[in-house]
Amino acid sequence: MNQHLVAPSLLAADFAHLGDALQLFDKSEADWLHLDVMDGRFVPNISFGLPVIKALRPLSKKVFDVHLMIEQPENYIADFKAVGADVLTVHYEASTHLHRSIQAIQAAGMKAGVALNPHTPVVLLQDIIKDVDLVCLMSVNPGFGGQSFIERTLLKIRQLKAMILAENSNALIEIDGGVDPKNAAAILNAGADVLVAGSSVFKSEDPMASIKHLKNIQQLDVV
Ligand code: DX5
Ligand code: ZN
Predict the structure, then answer these.
(1) Whole-number Å distance between alpha carbons of 209 and 223
(2) Which residues fall inside 5 Å of ion ligand 2, going by CB?
């Protein structure tokens, strides 16, 4: 039985007090910090970018999991390494030469992830699943926090898990969007390894307790 990882998404934190959010994250049971970079082109929203990540990096030694929702992410791989990204995820839909991008991310010394929008079928990863370190399944349409979990994602997790096992891949399955204490057990039981949670952590009354709760949900053996 694998212990899953919890990755609070900074997008839901109070942007006027990011330092406090980092301090809370660092003290909590959270494993990774999920950082959503948006360019207003690939997604209809603009969030934060390189200088913000650089400023936050000294505040925690834990993993910075950077989710690029930008066009031409291949142009910024060295920049995100330079500001301290540990995991760098690009979108399948934004990558004409995905294999080259994955290789470049790994050559730069980071773990390489690929994210799929809700409409993109898992089967499209067949020829790259052995090469990636992480697959981020979007369980909402990317661009905004606070949306509802798309139920069909549970089926996609099972399909992806089967592909990972069949291809002997080490890729982790990360679920991003609408994850909360009510659906987390079902997500884990379907085969997820990493839970991203924005609103259900930072908009909750007690973010520290919310992280603890997500971390301590029991994962049954996946059959
Ligand atoms: C959405 C982002 C998510 C977002 C999740 O585009 O990729 O990481 O922060 O937020 P919640 O957990 O509120 O759905
Ligand atoms: Zn994200």
Answers:
(1) 30
(2) 36, 67, 176
Q: What is the dihedral of CA 23, 16, 80, 112, to 10 degrees?
A: 60
Residue 145: which of 38, 22, 21 has the closest Cα?
38
Q: Which two tokens stand for residue 194?
A: 């990493």
Q: Whose CA is nearest to atom 6 of ligand 1?
A: 142
Residue 58 Cα to ligand 1 middle (Å): 23
The pLDDT tens digits for 96-145 are: 999 999 999 999 999 999 999 999 999 999 999 999 999 999 999 999 99
Question: For the chain, what percent of residues have pLDDT higher than 90?
Answer: 96
Residues 39, 70: contact at Cβ < 8 Å?
yes
- Supply φ then ψ for residue 184, to 5 degrees: -65, -40
What one-letter code names the amino acid at 158?
A: R
Q: Mean of the pLDDT values across residues 203-210?
A: 98
Coil, strand or helix: which one is 16? Answer: helix
Decide: 110 and 133 in contact? Cβ < 8 Å. Answer: no
CA–centroid distance, 117 to ligand 1, in Å, is 12
Residue 74, both tokens: 């291949």
As a whole number of angstroms, the distance between CA 26 and CA 223 comes to 34
What pTM value is reported for the model?
A: 0.97
Task: List the domains of the chain with CATH numbers.
Answer: 5-221 (3.20.20.70)
